[in-house]
Amino acid sequence: MFDVTALSDREFLALVGKRPGMYTGRTSFELAVAFLHGYESHAQRCGRSVLGGFDAWIEARGTPRGVTGWWGQARRIAFPDEERLRDLTREEEEHAVATLFRLLDGFLAAKEEGRT
User: Fold this and answer.
1) At what angle do helices 70-78 and 90-112 cross, to 10 degrees?
2) Which domain covers residue 44, as residue numbers?
3) Which of the 8 DSSP states describes residue 69?
4) CA-to-CA distance for 36 and 16, rounded, in angstroms?
5) Which of 27, 69, 82, 86 has a beta carbon 3.0–4.6 Å from 21's, enabling a disulfide?
6) Rounded CA gap, 90 and 48, in Å?
7) What is the pLDDT of residues 41-87, one digit of tens each?
8) For residue 17, which of 38, 5, 32 has the smallest C-alpha distance?
9) How many domains does the chain have?
10) How far is CA 100 from CA 3, 64, 97, in A?
11) Taking Cα atoms as reference points, which of 81, 76, 66, 62 lies closest to residue 29?
12) What is the dihedral of CA 105, 88, 73, 95, to 10 degrees?
């Protein structure tokens, strides 16, 4: 077993992205978003931000923010032709979650490299 407190945010969130159901109870886009909101809230209480600028980073890649912010942008990237927000199949949930964590990893990599 290893010490998760020694991991960077990017490393830890990559673990979450590989097995989201282990952290949220089941693999669900909605639960992954809730987990990330909680993660960000804790970071902010500690005087920092993990997701600050995520929506702008996604927008710079061609997906407008809209009213929902980064989670809505990730949903639109996962399902560009879909408008529905609920009633996803298991495969669609997995695709949406994988898309979200792929985007998040790209953002956190850019942040580590000072490109955000």
Assistant:
1) 120
2) 4-112
3) T
4) 10
5) 27
6) 34
7) 999 999 999 999 999 999 999 888 877 899 999 999 999 887 666 68
8) 32
9) 1
10) 25, 15, 5
11) 76
12) 30
- One-letter amino acid of 8: S
Distance between CA atoms of 67 and 10, rounded to whole angstroms?
A: 26
Determine the length of the chain: 116
User: Up-side HSE of residue 20: CA atoms within 13 Å toward CB?
Assistant: 22
- How far apart are alpha carbons 93 and 30 in whole angstroms? 9
In angstroms, the CA 97 to CA 91 distance is 10
Tens-place pLDDT, residues 21-47: 999 999 999 999 999 999 999 999 999
| Under 8 Å between Cβ of 43 and 49 | yes
pTM comes to 0.92
Two tokens, residue 92 = 């669609």
Q: DSSP alpha helices (H): ranges in 46-89?
A: 54-59, 70-78
The CA-based diameter of the chain, rounded to the nearest angstrom, is 42
